[in-house]
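Here is the promised in-class demo. Please do not try to memorize the tokens; focus on the logic of going from shape to residues.
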């Protein structure tokens, strides 16, 4: 199995994407092996098997998510960042641009113009890059995981890793390019991300949550059987909003993905309200509402990146100085409490810390425990779901069973 996983990592196409159908198939194979091993008490006799299963599961989830992310990365700018459905976005005039030969486009105000807007989009319009094309890739991942019967807990962990990358990629491009840092552009990108939220609502699910989650060490005879396995998630307390804890993955898919997208959503909200802040109280109240943005990011956007429109009110310099003071006094303490993973961006003249998110961070994984496996693939509590237990009972083809019977008959005659 380890050799097969290595081959899957090597068998990639020229653009760096792997076969998501094959990867999801092997992920389902791993989960069923885990079910059969648990039922046969194999982990108690061979504890290293559980370590290997966790390592293989993390390898498959990581490879599968990176394969999807390599496809999404090609569509991010055209489908999310640059796609425009609002008339005002493409006609806005900015204060620092050369506007000598630019004029604002007129809104459609004639009867024919308004009537044309009510018609469904043409085939050529549908073929253009849009958020719909972006969510189709997510739909492909959802389909292959569903068709192979991958456990809902493993699906939640896979989508969590995918949406973490989506958030980090879009967030880093926003905060690295002033072209996207304006009020109307933030409104448009937020609308595009709402298409992802609509998809999540229509494909929402919850993993089955038993009375006691985790506790895979009970499958082993040794009390410290899982010590040193760094892929396992934390189980010592309930955390609904922290992907480092196992309880996070028993929330709905919408909650998991929305939590991973929160930094990007908050950055877009900051861009929309930045110039509307008039005093220190409004600034402090607004900043306190953010759960993911830190002072370093707020200062960079406010003082360096934001593009003011013509005649747009500027953010008072006194408020920017307040942000810089908060960054100097509380910045490090705020980062130490953060759940996010940052990377350092260095250039010849500048070194920026705590600004960009690390898109390559890999979260821990967890396998379903015995209670979940019995409820999902066994006869259930009390053994009443016999037909479902038979569905997941491993069987051999009749031809192979005939060959085995023939070999047994020959052995008895000797």
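The designed amino acids, position by position:
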């Amino acid at each position: 199995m380890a050799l097969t996983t290595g081959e899957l990592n090597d068998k990639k196409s020229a653009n760096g994407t792997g076969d998501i159908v094959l990867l999801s198939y092997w992920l389902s194979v791993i989960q069923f092996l885990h079910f059969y091993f648990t039922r046969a008490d194999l982990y108690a006799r061979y504890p290293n098997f559980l370590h290997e299963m966790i390592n293989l599961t993390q390898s498959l989830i990581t490879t599968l998510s990176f394969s999807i992310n390599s496809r999404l990365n090609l569509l991010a700018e055209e489908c999310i960042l640059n796609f425009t459905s609002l008339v005002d976005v493409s006609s806005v005039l900015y204060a620092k641009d050369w506007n000598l030969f630019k004029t604002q486009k007129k809104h459609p105000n004639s009867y024919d113009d308004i009537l044309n807007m009510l018609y469904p989009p043409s085939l050529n319009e549908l073929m253009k890059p849009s958020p719909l094309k972006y969510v189709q890739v997510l739909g492909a991942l959802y389909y292959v995981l569903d068709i192979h019967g991958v456990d809902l807990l493993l699906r939640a962990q896979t989508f969590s890793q995918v949406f973490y990358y989506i958030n980090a990629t879009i967030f880093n491009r926003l905060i690295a390019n002033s072209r996207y840092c304006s009020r109307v552009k933030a409104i448009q990108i937020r609308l595009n991300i709402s298409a992802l939220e609509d998809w999540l609502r229509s494909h929402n699910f919850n993993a089955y949550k038993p009375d006691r989650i985790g506790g895979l060490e009970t499958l082993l005879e040794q009390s410290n059987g899982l010590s040193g396995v760094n892929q396992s998630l934390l189980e010592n307390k309930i955390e609904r909003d922290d992907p480092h804890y196992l309880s996070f993955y028993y929330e709905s898919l919408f909650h998991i993905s929305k939590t991973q997208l929160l930094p990007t959503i908050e950055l877009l909200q900051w861009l929309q309200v930045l110039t509307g802040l008039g005093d220190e109280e409004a600034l402090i109240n607004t900043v306190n509402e953010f759960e993911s943005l830190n002072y370093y990011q707020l200062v960079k956007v406010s003082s360096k990146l934001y593009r003011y429109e013509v005649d747009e009110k500027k953010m008072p310099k006194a408020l920017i100085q307040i942000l810089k003071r908060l960054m100097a006094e509380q910045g490090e303490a705020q980062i130490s409490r953060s759940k996010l993973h940052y990377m350092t961006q260095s250039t010849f003249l500048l070194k920026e810390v705590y600004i960009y998110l690390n898109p390559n961070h890999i979260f821990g994984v967890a396998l379903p425990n015995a209670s979940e496996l019995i409820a999902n693939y066994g006869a259930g509590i009390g053994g009443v779901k016999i037909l479902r237990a038979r569905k997941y009972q491993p069987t051999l083809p009749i031809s192979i069973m005939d060959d085995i019977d023939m070999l047994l008959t020959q052995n008895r005659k000797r």
